[in-house]
Specification:
single chain, 453 residues, Aminopeptidase, Alpha-Beta Plaits, 11 helices, 21% strand, binds 2-acetamido-2-deoxy-beta-D-glucopyranose, binds zinc ion, zinc, N-acyl_aa_amidohydrolase, N-acyl-aliphatic-L-amino acid amidohydrolase, metal ion binding, Bact_exopeptidase_dim_dom
Length: 453
């Protein structure tokens, strides 16, 4: 009987064929991966945003040069003119211009954002803070994703779209500024810019600056910042033995004063807790340090009452507060001389504008820009929340101090507020929606002919 015994070479052939099939299969999955990677590198609004987020402009060593170079190339790709000012060496300020068709209009629109960001502690992040990783749920993780590289790029993306569609050129000139050092007080950024001839030449009539995310579906808008005061109370008193009770020791004097400050703080906070005021509408007071005692090695001398004691408070004033009245209260009630108290108040910014008015932008019909802005939000299908005072401070104060109407606005709805926090992120859909909203706003504001300012 003939029995088929497959020759060894046939078996080998089979093996080779099989392994080739398997290899080809694995190669083709590999190719799919490459295709996916190439898709990720495609030039889209999201990849452009990611590229910008990957430039590390965190303090203390922000890479301003790379950020300016990237933004300049983006600006050129959509036909904007760009120039870099060096008001402080090594701290460039980028200024883009989209020229209007009616140069006779008395003022321009300025869209502002800052180049820098606060530092990040990578070990506390789920994704590296300068990776701009896009996770399957659409989150783009990066330091600066909310504060405020989103608006930096959204301004450009909105203009990119407008130029291709409904608005090849605006009526009113639009400037975009990218400034250094906002996160460290802005002295070398807007502080210098606002004093410069270059700024005067822009003839800015209205400004949009950064705002904050909204956890709900209403867009938030800010018409004022609060002004920080650093208040230091110093008490002196008779030194003495730790065993003896007597009146007029320094720490006792300070404790009495701190109690008064505590009552003031409580009254302000009660108004917030009762829903009578927003947290940013009251004068906030927070103790930040207490200093007393005679040091001995790692600890303190325990049987001596010191002759000096000091406490520091972070106080924040809304523009509605009366600074003269508050100063009087601090001197008379927190630091009375008959308790051996003195105080220094360091005002960390102006509280009144150049005409002596509270530093805020009107959000009613008295400000024609407000109507154009708020109507544009409605036209974009957005819902605007009641205008707010920002709890902290931004560069907007430099402009408002000049009497230039300025609104803080970052179109991020249904987003947790993560500025300066670990794991800062922004969802791709929220980012893209923000671009659409800016298309409406920029289109309306740059077409607005009505204001005399
Ligand atoms: C004020 O300080 C001086 C010492 O500097 C002390 O003799 C006096 O008792 C203190 N008075 C009060 C009211 O604390
Ligand atoms: C508009 O708001 C400003 C500032 O908040 C206020 O002083 C002014 O009275 C308001 N004007 C009108 C017309 O409501
Ligand atoms: Zn910011």
């Amino acid at each position: 009987m003939y029995r088929f015994t497959p020759p060894i070479f046939l078996l080998l052939l089979l093996l080779i064929t099989l392994s080739t099939v398997l290899l080809t299969a694995s190669q083709s999955t590999h190719q799919d991966d490459q295709v996916r990677e190439e898709e990720e590198e495609e030039d889209t609004p999201i990849t452009r945003f990611q590229q910008y987020l990957r430039i590390n402009t965190a303090h203390p060593t922000p890479d301003y040069a790379s950020a300016v170079s990237y933004l300049t190339s983006q600006a050129h790709s959509i036909g904007l003119t760009a120039r870099t000012l060096h008001l402080t060496p090594s701290k460039p300020l980028l200024l883009l211009t989209w020229a209007g068709t009616q140069p006779s209009l008395p003022s321009s629109l300025l869209l502002n954002s800052h180049l820098d960001s606060v530092p990040a502690e990578p070990s506390k992040w789920s994704h590296p803070p300068f990776s701009a990783s896009l996770t399957p749920d659409g989150r783009i993780h990066a330091r600066g994703a909310q504060d405020d590289k989103s608006i930096s790029m959204q301004y450009l993306e909105a203009i990119r779209t407008l130029r291709k569609t409904t608005l090849p050129n605006p009526i009113r000139t639009v400037h975009i500024s990218y400034v250094p050092d906002e996160e460290i007080g802005g002295a070398d950024g807007w502080g210098r810019f606002v004093e410069s001839e270059a700024f005067d030449e822009l003839r800015v009539g209205f400004v949009l600056d950064e705002g904050q995310a909204s956890v709900g579906d209403q867009l938030r808008v800010f018409y004022a910042d609060r002004c920080p005061w650093w208040v230091i109370l110093r008490a002196v008193g008779a030194p003495g033995h730790g065993s003896r009770m007597y009146d007029g020791s320094a720490v006792e004097n300070l404790m009495r004063s701190v109690e008064v400050v505590g009552k003031f703080r409580e009254a302000q906070f009660d108004a917030v807790k009762a829903g009578l005021a927003a947290p940013s509408e009251v004068v906030s007071v927070n103790p930040v340090y207490f200093k007393a005692g005679i040091q001995s090695g790692e600890g303190f001398v325990m049987n001596m009452q010191p002759s000096e004691a000091e406490a520091g408070f972070d106080v924040r004033l809304p523009p509605t507060a009366d600074p003269d009245l508050l100063k009087r209260r601090i001197l008379e009630e927190w630091a009375p001389a008959h308790w051996n108290l003195t105080c220094t108040i360091s005002e960390r910014g102006p509280i009144r504008d150049f005409k002596g008015r509270p530093i805020m932008t009107a959000t009613n019909d008295s400000n024609p820009w407000w109507s154009v802005f708020s109507n544009a939000i409605v036209a974009a299908g957005g819902k605007l929340a009641k205008p707010e005072i920002l709890a902290s401070t931004t560069d907007a104060r430099f402009l408002r101090q000049r009497g230039i109407p300025t609104l803080g606005f970052s179109p991020m709805t249904n987003t947790p507020i993560l500025l300066h926090d670990h794991n800062e992120f922004l969802k791709d859909t929220v980012y893209l929606r923000g671009i659409e909203i800016y298309e409406h706003i920029i289109s309306a504001l740059s077409s607005f002919k009505g204001s005399s300012t």
